[in-house]
Specification:
Blueprint: E1 2-9, E2 19-26, H1 33-40, H2 51-57, E3 63-64, E4 90-91, H3 95-104, H4 108-131, H5 138-153, E5 157-158, E6 163-166, E7 191-196, E8 198-199, E9 207-212, H6 219-238, H7 245-263, H8 270-275, H9 279-282, E10 327-330, E11 333-335, H10 338-346, H11 348-351, H12 356-361, E12 367-369, E13 372-376, E14 381-383, H13 391-401, H14 410-414
Parallel strand pairs: 3-4
Antiparallel strand pairs: 1-2, 5-8, 6-7, 7-9, 10-13, 11-12, 13-14
Length: 416
């Protein structure tokens, strides 16, 4: 409903002259409570201005308000308040752990939305892979991803600030922030590590694709990429209810160490490498995290679940055992970060396993991360993400994508 109002006024100090100023005031329709009852499928609906009187009429013994610490971020949730709340008996301790636990296990309807966010975000990643060329800016890829998610999927927001690292930037875990705003020029021979996820009705996705800017892996790029892919698939094969998430991190770490030894970067006994936490030099972050209404969702460390204070493991955003209905990311990575490499080389307990001559070849390499979203099922897991993953799939997709759109078979990607 719009109302047009015309105001007539005179300019002071000048010859009187009528000046017409037109203001258009638009009033959105205020729907009746019955509209919201039907829209949201609830028993009652009232206007916010009535909250105090409506609650008073129900004579509640206690009001539960949401206040508690997010064990992932350390932030305290903002507690609800309204005029007149002081007349009620309020408890702000009971609700938070219960709501957090509700968010850990997804309903069938929530899973449908998460499948959708993954579908659109996966397609957006594929659009980026088809479009990327040396000479482009990283932010052009970010823009293309966001454009696809919004125009094709109605996803106005991303789940987090897009990470579009190329070259050495691919070893910066949270690149893309205001201090490093995806502004590097992508060069021929670069690896691109693009970590991006769209959000739909508050439900997120979190997907990372790593691929060569020119569409062809070098021998070293292929070796590191396939090492990370091997650890990703090993974890996927092991995931099922009852499995402890820290054990999945340890599994990925071990596969990385075995593969880095096979490549020649490391030497010696892998069991001994594990004892000195050498894996955390190459994967300094946790294997993955809970996903849902927040990209790093709540409930990672409920009462009774303690953080493991060891390199790599301390970065895990949950140490829970897996349950059916959980949704998590699996995101192993191998990175060549000068600060961490130099730190390991100064430590006799770790440097004895490092082949310095071979490692020198990988200085400035950047990093590889492969991140998929999964839902834990009764017997294993469901892969929600659908993008080219093997070296052969990526190279073939990018080669054909340069000339025309190429379809990609999700089912073949999900085989384990």
């Amino acid at each position: 409903m719009c109302r047009r109002i015309q105001l007539f006024c005179c300019r002071v100090g000048k010859k009187p002259r009528d000046t017409v100023l037109t203001l258009v005031l638009c009033f959105a329709r205020i729907h009746p409570p019955e509209f919201f009852k039907k829209k949201y499928g609830v028993d009652e609906a009232h206007y916010v201005t009535e909250i105090s009187s409506v609650l008073a009429s129900k004579k509640p013994a206690v009001l539960l308000t949401l206040r508690g610490v997010n064990t992932d971020s350390g932030n305290v949730s903002k507690e609800a308040s309204f005029e007149g709340i002081s007349q009620f008996n309020v408890n702000n301790k009971i609700l938070h752990p219960e709501i957090a636990e509700c968010r850990v296990i997804k309903t069938d309807m929530e899973l449908e939305v998460l499948r959708y966010t993954n579908k659109i975000s996966s397609e957006a990643h594929k659009e980026v892979m088809k479009a990327v060329k040396p000479g482009m800016k990283e932010y052009e890829m970010e823009s293309l991803f966001q454009h696809y998610c919004y125009t094709r999927g109605g996803m106005r927001h991303t789940s987090y600030t897009c990470i579009c690292g190329s070259g050495e930037n691919s070893s910066v875990l949270h690149y893309g922030h205001a201090g490093a705003p995806n502004d590097r020029t992508i060069e021929d021979g670069d690896l691109c590590l693009f970590d991006m996820g769209g959000e739909y009705y508050c439900y997120g996705s979190d997907i990372t694709c790593t691929f060569p800017a020119n569409g062809k892996f070098t021998a070293d790029q292929r070796a590191i990429y396939e090492a990370v892919l091997k650890s990703s698939r090993a974890v996927m094969k092991a995931v099922k209810p009852g499995v402890a998430w820290p054990d999945m991190h340890r599994l990925a770490d071990r596969v990385h160490l075995e593969e880095l030894t096979r490549i020649g970067i490391l030497k010696g006994n892998v069991d001994d490498m594990v004892k000195v936490h050498l894996g955390a030099i190459f994967m300094p972050h946790g294997l993955g995290h809970l996903l849902g209404i927040d990209v790093h969702d709540v409930g990672g460390y409920p009462e009774g679940v303690e953080r493991i204070d060891l390199p790599g493991l301390r970065s895990l955003r949950t140490a829970r055992s897996l349950e059916q209905g959980m949704v998590l990311t699996i995101e192993p990575g191998i990175y060549f970060i000068d600060h961490l490499l130099d730190q390991a080389l100064r430590d006799p307990a770790q440097s004895c396993f490092i082949n310095s001559d071979v490692l020198r070849r990988f200085r400035g390499f950047g990093g590889v991360r492969i991140e998929d979203d999964i839902a834990v099922t009764a017997t294993g897991m469901e892969l929600l993400t659908c993008v080219p993953r093997t070296v052969e799939e990526i190279e073939a997709f990018m080669a054909e994508g340069q000339g025309s759109a190429k379809s990609f078979d999700c089912l073949s990607s999900q085989k384990q």
